[in-house]
Amino acid sequence: MTRLAIISGGLREPSSTRLLADRLEAAVRTALEAHPGEQVESSFVELRPLGRAVMDATLTGFPTGPLEDAFETVASADGVIAVTPAFNASFSGLFKCFFDVLPEETFTDMPVLIGATGGTERHSLVLEHALRPMFSYLHAIVSPRGVYAATDDFGAQTNAALGQRITNAATDFARLVQGCGTRQRRDAFTEELTAMQRLLGGSPGGGA
Amino acid sequence: MSDMQFGVFTVGDVTQDPTTGTTPSEAERIQATLAIARKAEEVGLDVFATGEHHNPPFVPSSPTTLLGHIAAQTERIILSTSTTLITTNDPVKIAEDFSVLQHVSGGRADIMLGRGNMGPVYPWFGQDIRQAVPLTVENYGLLRRLWREEVVDWEGEFRTPLRGFTLAPRPLDGVPPFVWHGSIRTPDIAELAAYYGDGFFANHIFWPASHTKRMVQLYRRRFAHHGHGSAEQAIVGLGGHVFMRRNSQDAVEEFRPYFDNAPVYGHGPSLEEFSSRTPLTVGSPAQVIEKTLGFREYVGDYQRQLFLVDHAGLPLKTVLEQLDLLGEEVLPVLREEFAAGRPADVPAAPTHAALLRARRPEPTPVSGATDKRRE
């Protein structure tokens, strides 16, 4: 079984960001389940209801209730689809803040499919200038093709073009997730502890 | 002194009182700190601990100077730190300063070590932040030897070697100050404390109980693993943060502006939300008693409870009233309740006298009994 976590940073209801996230999830599921016996379990993390919790965690340093659950959902996934609206040539502030408070190592070795929405197609490089570098920094494995959807893309005549981009990106990502297999969770707590044990083990006259 | 110690720990911040707009001078803040320490002894508290900071708006950059002065004005209270920076202070100087403090205070000094969390401090003292963890391990290893060995030959990575060095003065009665390792969030400090069989102090405040529980459990498990006794015999301290008035609602109303503007608290979750998620207790003495007794449920029977009572610009008069309430209404109940049901094999809080007794050979050896304490 493959566990997918889908992070949607849309702020309005209904949200075109969520719409793109849904279509990406469906396409990835189809691509993965094309393999006999493969099952996909998807969990959505909507950031808007977590808005206050994210800002509280930014200020206090610790997450509470539903935000902790969201962290757990992401950390236990085998692959993540992350979609944000484009604001001022970048991701939305809430989207960035969520990753700022996420525990370290959560994204290490995580396959990620990036997506973004915006008013016009002129912002499409936000995927390459904002999302991809952040996920690279987090040591994620970012799928080569992301999907950007402008308002026009959701119009009836051009829908086929967006559909094709979604299918292409989802096919790439499904191969990536399959190749990576079930993900080994990384845990900064345990890693720090192990590092200290190693240091003490090597310190002269340590146990005295 | 009873099995458990209660005290206060101060950060030493100079903060504007948000209700009056007045900010104490450094001189006033230092005098207030001294008054708080004297009052702590007067109301029957067991421990006064000061932080160490090297930048404004904090005043305690030289803790043993402060504690030495307090030692001269008090009789009984234990003087400690929260924390002494094991990374940026030279271990030779820490060993000297705390040996002297032991002597001038008549064995009322112990020490809580920490890494510090301010990156810029490291270069002020010629150290490299990138080496914080190995520096902690090396410096502490040396500090232990300085207090325990008459002549120290030592080589390490981060300071010049020592050749035939003898610490002067030697620790009082040859017993090193008890060492606590203080930690807010990192598990490696719990491991360090467990490895040496030292005390582990979880800062506790500002963070949810679940985090503290995990850290203390880890420390206890590793304490046993390293052969210092059972997990229940590990030496645990906790922080706490209280503001009291006899009437609960008065406490909330009076403290709210301080909470809302405090650098560590303000502008995020509300006072009520923070109180429900962390050890912060703003209310009546009965509420403080109830919440504090609850700490035991997730860390086990422990040895030291320190309260933060003097930050965020609270005026000295208010802080002294807090100490009166602690001494008169809270402390007697806490002492009695914590003692009730405390298993006999849970060690008492460490004192110089107890460490000295433990060091002396047993007059009549009891067959089958082994003393698992190291010093």
Key attributes of the depicted protein:
heterodimer; A: alpha/beta; Rossmann fold; seven-stranded mixed β-sheet; 19% strand; globular; B: alpha/beta; TIM Barrel; ten-stranded parallel β-sheet; 12 helices; 42% helix
Written overview of the protein:
The complex is a heterodimer of chains A (208) and B (375). In chain A, helix 5 links the parallel strand 5 and strand 6. In chain A, helix 1 crosses helix 6 and helix 2 crosses helix 4. With 208 residues, chain A is of the alpha/beta class. Chain A has seven helices and seven strands. By secondary structure, chain B is α/β, with parallel strands linked by helices. Chain B has a single domain, classed as Alpha-Beta Barrel (TIM Barrel), CATH 3.20.20.30. In chain B, strands 1, 2, 3, 4, 5, 8, 9, 10, 11 and 12 form a ten-stranded parallel beta sheet that branches. Chain B has a two-stranded antiparallel sheet with strand order 6-7. In chain B, helix 1 packs parallel to helix 11, helix 2 runs parallel beside helix 3 and helix 6 packs parallel to helix 7. The C terminus of chain B is likely disordered. At the A-B interface, helix 2 and helix 7 of A face helix 5, helix 6, helix 7 and helix 9 of B. Chain A: Pfam families: FMN_red. Chain A: GO terms for molecular function: oxidoreductase activity. Chain A: This is NADPH-dependent FMN reductase. Chain A: Keywords: Flavoprotein, FMN, Oxidoreductase.
